[in-house]
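CORE FACILITY INTAKE
Project code: CF-77B
Contact: R.S. (postdoc)
Sample description: multi-component assembly, two entities in total
Requested service: structural model of the whole complex
Turnaround: standard
Below are the sequence entries exactly as provided by the requester. Do not edit them.
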Amino acid sequence: MTIRIAIDAMGGDKGLEVTIPASLNALNTFADLHLILVGDEPKIKQALLSQQAIPRDRLTIQSASQVVDMDELPSQALRNKKDSSMRVALDLVKQDQAQACVSAGNTGALMATAKFVLKTLPGIHRPAICTALPTIKKPVYMLDLGANVGADGESLAQFAIMGSVLAKTLHPDITPRVGLLNIGEEEMKGHDRIKLAQQLLRQTPIYYVGYVEGDDIFKGNVDVIACDGFDGNIALKSSEGVAKMISYYLKQAFMRNLVTKLIGLMAAPVLKAFKAKVDPRNYNGASFLGLRKCVIKSHGGADSFAFENAIKVARIEVLHDVPSRIRDEVARLLDEQTQSQTLED
Amino acid sequence: MTIRIAIDAMGGDKGLEVTIPASLNALNTFADLHLILVGDEPKIKQALLSQQAIPRDRLTIQSASQVVDMDELPSQALRNKKDSSMRVALDLVKQDQAQACVSAGNTGALMATAKFVLKTLPGIHRPAICTALPTIKKPVYMLDLGANVGADGESLAQFAIMGSVLAKTLHPDITPRVGLLNIGEEEMKGHDRIKLAQQLLRQTPIYYVGYVEGDDIFKGNVDVIACDGFDGNIALKSSEGVAKMISYYLKQAFMRNLVTKLIGLMAAPVLKAFKAKVDPRNYNGASFLGLRKCVIKSHGGADSFAFENAIKVARIEVLHDVPSRIRDEVARLLDEQTQSQTLED
């Protein structure tokens, strides 16, 4: 089976400089991959000139004349950029010429356009942004990370269910433990919507384990964490911020003087092994769950290594047909709910 | 001037084991300090027996027969624990026998009891929990960290003002730059209450610089960040969680085999210097801003070094008379507001 993925080649802070080498690396790693580079054709061809080992039979260029700016309003991008690399890449998925789209472009525009072009799955209120994050054990899948501000209880429960299906699909050997992000003060514990989501989740067959707090995210004691997009974004960005600060101070400690620099040289292999463990680039590639097709958002500032990881995430989700799995599971739950309501009547 | 601080000696996960040595260290560091250890008198005396260098003229014991449990409901603690070490310590502050209270006990109970015993400053809607956090530059003061879930726009603006007064009081050489925590997507930027808070802050004389995102917390580009207690708690705990995970993987990298362990031994002084820079114990001690007196909350799991830092925070805030400064500044702003409204009429 060939997996065809449309790449928004112009998206992200660095565009082709990142997307072209990442795409070629992915093609050379996975023989089952066919990539469609969407964007400014002459520029793409120019960028390919300097590259080696191009598997031309598994690489297509699809012309698109516009680019969505990183700070463009989603509504404007949707209205005015109908021939953007982002839009055309999504159109290819809609037309079944590709099974997934990967973009490092404007998150809001990508979500708005993806919802418009590909549509939300039946029964799903709102798609959510989900990513794997490192923990001291296995990765945890967290959603929503910014698509929905002020999601209601039902949406939160749906996020949890979609996350659980994703985790189960990618790791068939586990029964994913699912938590809701909350804070610890007993009497004021969280917003009403979180309490409602908890009630709803207790009625589903998913393995809901209860509330988790911010510091639980990285402990590896749950496999899925559902939250409102505002809260998830705050948690994710705060974590990124503190990780950058720690890495700054670690580097500074070794750069202080000649002696510490020499120690740093000796410690380099150990520090390298450590960095590989917590390298956020290994986790680049967030899934837009709840859409009818696979859409993967790369960090806008991703380098080629990180963008390649987003392509890998897209490939895996296509291989496992994640959107269909979510559709089937949600339909099953909704069906059970209807049946139990009918029985109660 | 002698600074008298009431210590909830029984509070926290470890109680006297932490509070006694921390108190004695603080007394031996600051000659202007007088501490009142509040709690089970025989147990306190017993704990003091094993200690050396006790400045008995600056140490008092105040008996209290009860202890608030770490998971006790705040309302129940308030109702049933009128002779708890926490309550008696706050009573001492109310009676002007102490100028501040430091507790590592149950956060919700401490806030509820402090509000009841000491009262909120005139004009302040709700007190907020504020702590200094490390950045790659100077520390940033962040509030609220969990006292208020669903704070409205006016409360958020008050948090920003209180934080600004605190930063200005403790660092008279700076004009604190104040930001509101938000997320980055333009069209859905944050909750309405954050937009309202921004409008309100633009009308005040404080140096409001705009929205900041989670990853900005640790960049040091603002001195004060105001947010809802839910969001602040998520940001703080997520940051703690990722910092612990990073430290776990760093240790693991050096413990992998004999060679890496030897490298670790050589790198130990560098790693120690690095750890000191990001050690959260240096930032232990959160202020309850908006009360009529100083109340400092230590992390429940604080060790003696961290708890001593909370005592230092209390001492500094008493020295600078933070509650009066906040009271005066809020009164001045409210006054200006009334005057400008009168002029408009």
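Facility notes:
- The longest strand of chain B covers residues 33-39.
- Residues 1-124+290-345 of chain B form a domain with the Isopropylmalate Dehydrogenase fold (CATH 3.40.718.10).
Invoice: internal transfer
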